[in-house]
Structures are given as C-alpha cells and as structure tokens.
Amino acid sequence: MKITNKINLITTAWIICVLIVVNIAVFYSFLKVTVNVEEKVVLQNADAILEDINNGDSNEVIKGKLTKYLTNGSFIRIIEPGSKIMNQVTHNQQISSKIKGEFVTKTKSKRYLVRTAQGEEQMLVVRIPIESNGQVIKTLEIGERLVGLELGKDVLLSILIACTILGALLSLIGGKWLANILIRPVSNMIDTMEEIEQSGITKHMVIEGQPKDELQKMAVTFNRMMDRLDNNIEKQQQFISDASHELKTPITVIKSYADFLRRHGIQNKEVALDAVDVIHSEATRIQLMTEKFLDLANTELENVLEKTTIDLIAFNKDIVKQIQRAYKREIDLHYSDESLTVIADELKLKQVMIILLDNAIKYSKEKIDIYLENQENATVIRVKDYGIGIPESEINNIFERFYRIDKARSRETGGTGLGLAIAKQIMKQHEGEIKVKSVENVGTEVELFLPN
Ligand SMILES: Nc1ncnc2c1ncn2[C@@H]1O[C@H](COP(=O)(O)OP(=O)(O)OP(=O)(O)O)[C@@H](O)[C@H]1O
Ligand SMILES: [Mg+2]
Fold first, then answer.
1. Could you identify which of 69, 294, 425, 445 might form a hypothetical disulfide with 299, taking C-beta atoms 3.0 to 4.6 angstroms apart as the criterion?
2. Is the pLDDT at 407 greater than 60, yes or no?
3. In the chain, what are the domains?
C-alpha cells in the first residue's frame, strides 16, 4: 500500500474514533442537561403541591388539588410507607401503570424508558418525601414525560451521525491532500534516485530555502552523499589515469628491450644481458607499483580503522629491529617519557612508519633518528635523516601521488612516488597530521601528529 494511502487511512480511522468519543460525550451531556432542567421544573411544581395540600384533606380533595397540577402525559401520586399508592391522578394510564410507586425518605429522581403502544417514551419520575413532625410519612411522586428529550434526542443523534460521516469524508479528502504535501520530498527523492539508477550519473535534489524539517534534512544528507560519491568517482578516475600513465613508461621500456632482443637475438651476450637486466628491473618496478596502487586504493576507499591502544615505545622498537635487520642501517630511538600510548590502527600506523623509514634509508646514508614525544594535544613521532634533503619549493608537492622530485634520482632508488601520498591519507583517516621540514643536503625531518 502506498504510504500516502496508509497515512490517510490511519488519520481517518483516528478522526472517526475521536468524533465517536466526542459525540457520545455530547449526547450524554445533552441528556443530562435536559433532564436537569426538567427536574428543576418538577421540583418547583412539587413545592407548590406540598403547600397546597393540607394534612386533613380528604382523598377526594387531594385528588382534586393534584389534578390542577397535572400536565399532559404526567402523573402525580401520593405514596404511603410500604410503597402503596394512596392517591393517583394521571393523563396517561398506560405509562403510570408501568411505573411502580416507591416510598422514599430522600428526594430522588430517575429516568424511565417506557414502551407503550405508541412507541418508546421517556419519563422523569421525581420522588419527594413528605414530612410531619420531623418524620417522613408519605412520598409525593411526580412523573413527567420528557417530550423535549424525546424529540431532541433523535434530532441530535441524526446530526451527530451526519457530522461523523462528514468528518470522516473531509479527513479522507484532506488527508490525501496533506499526505501528498508531506510525501512530496520523498517522491522527489525516489524520482531522483531512479534517474541516477537509470543514467548512472549522480544528481542533487533541489532544496528551497533553509532545511527546516526532517525530510528536507534527509534531502541535504542525500545531496552530501552524492557529493561524496562524486568525489570518490573523481578520485577513482584520477587514480586510474595516474596509474595507467605511470605504468606506460616501464611497459614501453620493457617492450622496446624485448623487441630489441627479438630482432637481434642474443648475438651480443653482453648487450642481451643488459637488456634482460633492464626488463627485470622495470618489471620489478611495475610489481612494486601495483602493490602500492592497491595499498593506496585501499586506504582511499576503506575508511574503517581498527583502532587499538598502542604502546608507542614497544611498537617503534619492533619496527626499528625489523628494518635494521633488513637494511643494516643505524636507527636510534629517542624518548624521555616512561610510557607513550596512542589510539590508532596499528597496521596502518606501521605502514606509515615503514614509508618514512624507507624514504630515510633511500635518501640518506647516515644514521636515522626517531623521536617520540608527548605534546599538549597530540603525540608526535619524528623521523629524522641526514641525507640529500628536499628543495624548499618541492616540499608541498611530495605528498602528491606519483610525485618524485628528481625522476632520475628516484629511478635509481626505485620509488613510485606513492609512499607519502599513502602516509598522508592514513594520517588524515586518524584525524592527525604529517609535516615535513627539510634542508637540501642537510637532511629531512618528517613529523607525525596523532591527536590525543
Ligand atoms: N627523507 C627524504 N629525503 C629526501 N627526499 C625525500 C625524502 N622523503 C621523500 N623524499 C622525496 O619525496 C618524493 C616522494 O616520496 P614518496 O615516498 O612519496 O615516493 P618515493 O619514495 O619516490 O616512492 P615510494 O615511496 O612510493 O616507493 C621522493 O621521490 C623523494 O624525492
Ligand atoms: Mg618513499
């Protein structure tokens, strides 16, 4: 079922319930008010009767006096203890015969529904005790037909039923209109999504003015999602074009050397071996490059970090040990704090450290220093080398993908220009920072800031 129909049906059902409850309340209030008004009149009548009747009056005299007060459809009785009717005057024998007399010691009134040959009739019977010397000796019982109630009740009932039906109809019509207004942004969103699905091109929703309600906020979130998607698609395309551009050079080199070997065979063994060497080194470069491509693609697309608390000193000692074993280079770890911990993704942080140490090893020959330090808002790791350094004008470029300062120099060291781009991405994921200070031919210091 469409959501608009659902909203419509639920609101209509609710409105019908409310109308029924209100109408019942109105109906019973009407009954009560009408009966109260009638009761007051009857009580005034009773006062007059009681004043009129004297203790010594004979039955005939009393009857005569009571008849004076008789109205159309009413009866007046005097009841003795034991609920025996002493005197009765009536205009409607049928009704009075159906209502039994009752002796009371306190004023009481009761509504009766009497079935007669003419139909149902509403009667109000008021019973007033008659006292003599502080003792109740008789009861004056006055039965009055509630004509106003009989007529009004049916009219009111018809009006209330008509109002309920009208209310339900209005709610159905208005509900559909309201539901359509409310659901319009959702319908627009569905249309936009369908368009995106069919065309494969991201699209934004039109939002008029400041977002005020939840649905408009949903549209804003949708647009933000589209922006991110656009951004990711753009990154992916950029990555593919960068990657294929970078792969083109080594592949061309490999192809041209392979062509050379095919054409000239291995007549000159020395030249042939040179060619094979170049092919091997370029193929290795492609291999390294593809591994890094995957790394970068993963860090750019995967935003989930598996954060744990890392003991930074032990963590660095481990890395230093591994690198020293592989490269036989002196790496010194400096720290003054007793313990240093950070909350980070251990594997990714290790990847950053290896990228920095790999650079320090490649671009310097002296020892390498690592400093660990706790600052006010962040924990800092510094990797410092005393190598060739980076020209000042290049410092801002080295974080770009595939950027190498001097291609010839980097070729020699086998870089792809992706290391620092990956490191920057990982630091960004950690809401941290990476900064480089360098002086050409003096050395380079890379600082990692991990927020506390
Ligand atoms: N410690 C350093 N000393 C001197 N130059 C550096 C240092 N670190 C980076 N660079 C320069 O910045 C460039 C970019 O570094 P990056 O680590 O991104 O790439 P790479 O080392 O060339 O290749 P990859 O790390 O992908 O194998 C390097 O080519 C190098 O010229
Ligand atoms: Mg590198």
1. 425
2. no
3. 3-154 (3.30.450.20), 202-302 (1.10.287.130), 305-451 (3.30.565.10)
